[in-house]
Amino acid sequence: MERFAIRGNICYSENQKSIRTIEHGYVICEDGKSIGIFEELPEQWKGISCRDYGDRLIIPGLVDLHVHAPQYSFRGLGMDLERIDWLNTHTFPEEEKYQDSGYAKKAYTIFTEDLLRSATTRACVFGTCHKDATLWLMEQMEKAGLAGYVGKVNMDRNSSQGLCEKSAEVSAEDTEAWILASEKFSNVRPILTPRFIPTCSDELMERLSKLQKRYGLPAQSHLSENLSEIEWVRELQPKASCYGDAYRIHGLFGGDCPTIMAHCVYSSEEEIRMMKEQGVFVAHCPESNANLSSGIAPAKRYLEMGIKMGLGTDVAAGSSLSMFRAMAMAIQCSKLRWRLTDQSIKPLTVTEAFYLATKGGGEFFGAVGSLEAGYEFDAVVIDDSKIRSAREVSVRDRLERLIYLDQDAEIEAKYVKGKQITDNRQRKTVGDNNGKYVSGENSAVSE
Ligand code: GUN
Ligand code: FE
Predict the structure, then answer these.
(1) Ligand 2 centre from 285 Cα, in Å?
(2) Domain boundaries, the chain
(3) Cα–Cα dist 113/82, whole Å
(4) pTM for this one?
(5) N or C: which end of the chain has fewer CB within 10 A?
(6) Burial classification of residue 377, based on how many CB atoms lie within 10 Å of its CB (0-12 exposed, 13-18 middle, 19 or more buried)
(7) CA gyration radius for the chain?
(8) Which regions of the chain are under pLDDT 70?
């Protein structure tokens, strides 16, 4: 049995309304899970190895519920278009390049390295429709120690010639081969990824539905991102009562198929009711929705209604992999929405945004997104000492500041399921007692 503790200024979301902080507290990990947060090491655990991170912040690993790995190569570019034109002009031509394994390897190495350096421990990732490139991405993430779901994208209509799969049958066959090939991974799991209704024929959706049942896989896609798309789906799928229903009629909208739908900016009352009933997770992607002039999703309303929700960066419609930035944007956009369009829905608070980036999105993975007992031990140690201020700042305020100033902070160490996957300071081992005592730079050695 592997057991150890880490020590530092712990900060986590108890629920949507409360952040708890423990100064110089301990989190104990046993076999990849937290067995609790403590102000002092309890007597029975006194002998275990403890890494002391001194005055650093320790927060749960952040969860990115929606990101496109192949689009990372053109992040920060091509933002002057709306969604459909953006897809045709920038996105599809970029994603075509991933049939070239040399390009895919280069690009996915950069994506994985940068994700590893971020505060994100888990992500739900779109690849491209290329099976081999997607497997390679999964392998890189697995090797890096990151956890999450990765999807080979499906699209058999309304995409560029070079990207459109030859037929529904070919798309489904490739998807099944990819599912079987990804069995070798343990922390990075496959997720069915029909890009969105406009690019997936009924036949393809039916075939994916069969695969979903055969392999018990979750699904991810896009929903009600902008108004013209909703109109287009109405024409493409007249049988569906709303956009979400176009997924539901193929069994790919929650229920027995755990599902994440990105955006939900313009979901109708019926669609919202359906999401709630079916337990569909909303991936709220505020930066993407601003960049592509899509709009602002009523995230606060979803939260208050008890709809399951997390945050997504949606790179490259979002420019950055930073989940801190996603939190800041969620708060800022909700304020503009409140002020400019709908006074009945209050802005999101810092506490709510932190909840969404940790426990809210983490729930898609089970007990993920907290450091409390029973949760998987995903933790991030952050050095914010370069954010200079004359003022004494509480741990809670340091977390709040980080949401807006994360570019000035450094991720010092990161743990996923109890395994340390980054260590930027190569801390010194200073003692031995069944394991190791490691001291934080500015702190006393644990005794
Ligand atoms: N809808 C379908 N594909 C995409 C995509 O790649 N990004 C965004 N933002 N919306 C989409
Ligand atoms: Fe997206």
Answers:
(1) 8
(2) 3-60+370-430, 62-365
(3) 29
(4) 0.95
(5) N
(6) buried
(7) 22
(8) 426-447
Tell which atom from ligand 1 comes closest to the C-alpha of 71.
6
Task: Report DSSP letters for 133-183, one per residue.
Answer: HHHHHHHHHHHHT-EEEEE-EE--SSS-TTTS-S-HHHHHHHHHHHHHHGG
Q: Considering only the top CATH level, what class is 3-60+370-430? A: mainly beta
In eight-state DSSP terms, residue 360 is I
Mutate to test the pocket of ligand 1, among 64, 68, 153 (most ligand atoms within 8 A of CB): 68
32-52 tens-digit pLDDT: 999 999 999 999 998 999 999
pLDDT, residue 407, reads 94
Nearest CA to ligand 1 atom 9: 317
CATH architecture of 62-365: Alpha-Beta Barrel (3.20)
Question: Which residues does 108 contact at the CB level (< 8 Å), separation at least 6?
Answer: 69, 70, 133, 136, 137, 140
pLDDT tens per residue, range 397-445? 999 999 999 999 999 999 999 999 998 775 433 333 333 444 433 333 3
Distance (Å, whole) CA 401 – CA 387: 9
